[in-house]
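I'd like us to work through together how a protein chain folds, taking it slowly. To get us started, please write out a protein record for me. Go ahead whenever you are ready, and we will take it from there:
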Amino acid sequence: MDRTIAITGGGAGIGRATALHFHALGWRVAALDKDADALAELAALLPKDRCLPLRCDVGQEAPVTRAFDRIGEWLDGDPLTALVNNAGIADPCCGPLEDLELAEWQRWIDASLTAAFLCTRAALPLLRRADGASVTNISSTRALMSEPDTFAYAAAKGGLDALTHAMAVSLGPEVRVNAVLPGWIETGPWQKQGERTDPDHSKAARAQHPAGRVGTPEDVADAIEWLVGAGFVTGQRIVVDGGMTVKMIYAA
């Protein structure tokens, strides 16, 4: 039986790399994204019978329900083996707290935390068909440490970490739930055409990482693959940051 993975925010960045990574392993891929152009580019790279691109705002209940109904039709009775809740707003900065409007705060929360709740809830009937199903939530090292003016982003990712262990306790043993906390991941080469960049990171940027380099989306995809197959691991947070958050950096 084919294994199938659903990935939110699958059109670009970490989501796109994860979709291509699992396709290369022989999986079918359902990719959800708000960006129709990014989805079309991803779909063009994969065989039509192995990829289901779905335009969806995963922070909204009705579109999520429709998307997972469509995934269920596509699976035709087969299970959904894995779900990756990757969607979110990439830019963490929201400005001074006194200027942050509630609607803007909610936008960050919905894009990541609410989306993970909605998508996992909708996916559960499909995941429970599988033997050894898993959910991987893509959090951030900003759930552990902060830069100025990142209140909403940090709260969304911190909430996602808490949601991860709450889900792991409640959904096991049928479904395991873990989180990956990426650090500095360079997604420029993994954007859609017209937004793609190929940055040249400075020696100082690389030196912040004990691993000697900035991370790539493939690094995160590797961690997701490991968690999907790690049958005795649930409720855990895996930091993928090249060691940056464990290195002490002193002001000059």
The mean pLDDT is 93. The first helix runs from residue 13 to 24.
